[in-house]
Amino acid sequence: MHGYRDRVRKQPDRIYEGRKPQPLGARTGRKNLTGPQLRQARLERQPQWSLEELSQALLRTANIELSESALSKIENGQRSVYDYELQAFAMTLDVSLDWLVNGEHLP
């Protein structure tokens, strides 16, 4: 006797002709989209902020504690970013979330 699974044959997704797109990280090796914009916003401040200064500002303005090491990993695409961290970065660095994620609009 054959079960339901035996009767139903999985059809490939016609949109991708059997190949689904890979996640961003698999294509680029990065774990976030934000790193380059985060570094740019930090370095374009007058005066420029070090990672330590950004860490302290995040703690003051958003009560988020991120070490210099964690910030460096985010900037280099080696660490994922939580949504609340994105919001804190945008608020602390006075840039839009859209620019921080997409880099398409001026901060």
Secondary-structure topology with pairs:
Elements: H1 4-7, H2 24-28, H3 35-44, H4 51-62, H5 68-75, H6 83-93, H7 97-102
Protein name: HTH cro/C1-type domain-containing protein
Biased composition (Basic and acidic residues): 1-20
Organism: Deinococcus daejeonensis
Radius of gyration: 20 Å
SSE order, one letter for each helix or strand? HHHHHHH
Total strands: 0
CATH class of the domain at 36-107: Mainly Alpha
Main β-sheet, in a few words? none
CATH superfamily membership of the domain at 36-107: lambda repressor-like DNA-binding domains
Count of helical stretches: 7
**What helical percentage do the residues reach?**
40-55%
Overall pLDDT: 84
How many angstroms does the end-to-end distance come to? 64 Å
- If you consult CATH, what is the topology of the domain at 36-107? 434 Repressor (Amino-terminal Domain)
- So what's the overall shape? globular
CATH architecture tag of the domain at 36-107: Orthogonal Bundle
**Residue ranges: pLDDT <50 for 5 or more in a row?**
none
Q: SS-based structural class?
A: mainly alpha
Oligomeric state as shown: single chain
Strand content: under 5%
Organism: Deinococcus daejeonensis
Biased composition (Basic and acidic residues): 1-20
Protein name: HTH cro/C1-type domain-containing protein
Domain HTH cro/C1-type: 38-100
